[in-house]
Design goal:
The protein has 2 domains: about 170 residues, Flavin prenyltransferase-like (Rossmann fold, 3-Layer(aba) Sandwich), CATH 3.40.50.1950; about 210 residues, Rossmann fold (3-Layer(aba) Sandwich). The chain has 14 helices and 19 strands. The longest helix is centred in the C-terminal third of the chain and has 15 residues. The chain starts with 7 loop residues before the first strand and ends with a helix. The structure holds ligand PMT. The site of ligand PMT has 28 residues, from helix 10, helix 12 and strand 16.
């Protein structure tokens, strides 16, 4: 499946008649899931307006190198670092010459010079210009430097000539761009992950919670996004920065997490419940701060909905993975959760060991399936998350 989910593409447009097709390139890249920033040369703006590209890409179009306002928002160096791929379509003979000579005379050529990302160009020019020895010499120099050349194709040209120099069609350009990426193991999939603790309010200043830091769930979300998944992270209150390229929904209580999980699970192929959800919440939340009076106090608790079980019970259920935080008989209890909650997989951790599990950088887990269990020894949570995501991706049913 053609997927550019989580991919950042900087589309450079130079001044050729094929510039009008850039609008379609933007649309098709977006259909494949890419995030796009557009940079135009001043000649390109004679063929298509920046406003059109801004409306389509959803971002302000970048036009000038020495524009203090643009540099303050997203400067040329930032843009060169932002892009996973720079795609110049159409690329004129003049722009190819600039690139081949390593010039940094405008915003687009400067970004190409500063960037270490993959660079692809879709040449477009009159057949005589394309055949000219200077253009062919520049082409070979660019190829030699690893620049990807998409086309051109042959046919009738806007000027009336027939021959090579027509820009490759937008859909072909998008497919060739997608080929530049190694497709991640979760490309084209939607993954929803719960993380962190929940807080169950007692009164305006007190709550019941636990020691989950969210590190395990955030690492899983990062690994899923890295593997190309459209990733949604539903996070309880933690002190972590949301991972890049992940839609993060912040919640506080188990009921809020439950609602967000069920809403986000639509069209999702994988659900991972790593959150430490409070099993109970106070039956009533006092409106005012409760005052100290008697020597003893009793708080009535009611059961929270079980989020992972509710997802596993859905008619069109995703592949559903639960965690099990145990302090004893880890495998037995994990297996009983697998069966009782009707999960596809349970990742069990022994939370009696303070160096793993809750609020630590490392974890050691037992991956429990119906047919067996496999231990993954103590390792950093980010590395563990990548290993778990790779394993789970292999277990997902193919479309
Ligand atoms: O956040 P960290 O500090 O990195 O710590 C990671 C962790 C220890 C929290 C994590 O590795 C972990 O074990 N998460 C699950 C904790 C837990 O609540 O386990 P449980 O055995 O009580 O619950 C079993 C499963 O049911 C879990 O997938 C849990 O998310 C889910 N559950 C539980 C209750 C509930 N009401 N709804 C649920 O979905």
């Amino acid at each position: 499946m053609l997927s550019l989910v989580n991919k950042r593409i900087l589309l450079g447009i130079t001044g050729g008649i094929a510039a009008y097709k850039s609008a379609e390139i933007v649309r098709r890249l977006q259909d494949a899931g890419a995030d796009i920033q557009v940079v135009m040369t001043s000649a390109a703006t004679e063929f298509i307006t920046p406003l059109t590209l801004q409306a389509l890409s959803g971002h302000r179009v970048h036009l000038a190198l020495l524009d203090p306002e643009s540099e303050a928002a997203m400067g040329h160096i930032e843009l060169s670092r932002w892009a996973d791929v720079i795609l110049v379509a159409p690329a004129t003979a003049d722009f190819m010459a600039k690139l081949a000579n390593g010039e940094g005379s405008d915003l687009l050529s400067t970004i190409c010079l500063a960037s270490r990302s993959a660079l692809a160009i879709a040449p477009s020019m009159n057949q005589g210009m394309w055949r000219h020895p200077s253009t062919q010499y520049n082409l070979e120099r660019l190829r030699g430097r690893g620049v990807h050349i998409f086309g051109p194709t042959e046919g009738s040209q806007a000027c009336g000539d027939i021959g090579p120099g027509r820009m490759t069609e937008p859909q072909d350009i998008v497919e060739l761009t997608a080929d530049l990426f190694e497709t991640g193991a979760l490309a084209g999939r939607k993954v929803v992950i719960t993380a962190g603790p929940t807080r169950e309010a007692i009164d305006p200043v007190r709550y019941i919670s636990n020691h989950s830091s969210g590190k395990m769930g955030y690492a899983l979300a990062e690994a899923a996004a890295e593997a190309g998944a459209e990733t949604v992270l539903i996070s309880g209150p933690v002190n972590l920065t949301p991972p890049d390229r992940v839609k993060t929904i912040h919640v506080t209580s188990a009921l809020e997490m439950y609602e967000a999980a069920l809403a986000e699970t639509v069209n999702c192929q994988l659900f991972i419940a790593s959150a430490a959800v409070a099993d109970y919440r106070p039956a009533r939340i006092a409106e005012q701060k409760m005052k100290k009076a008697a020597d003893q106090m009793t708080i009535e608790l009611v059961k929270n909905p079980d989020i992972v079980s509710a997802v596993a019970a859905l008619q069109n259920r995703p592949f559903t993975v639960g965690f099990a935080a145990e302090t004893t008989q880890v495998e037995d209890f994990a297996r009983s959760k697998l069966e009782r909650k009707k999960l596809d997989l349970v990742i069990a951790n022994d939370v009696s060991d303070r160096t793993i599990g809750f609020n630590s950088d490392d974890n050691a887990v037992l991956v429990v399936e119906m047919q067996g269990a496999e231990a993954i020894p103590k390792i950093n949570k980010s590395i563990l998350a990548r290993q778990l995501i790779a394993r789970i991706a292999d277990m997902l049913p193919t479309d």
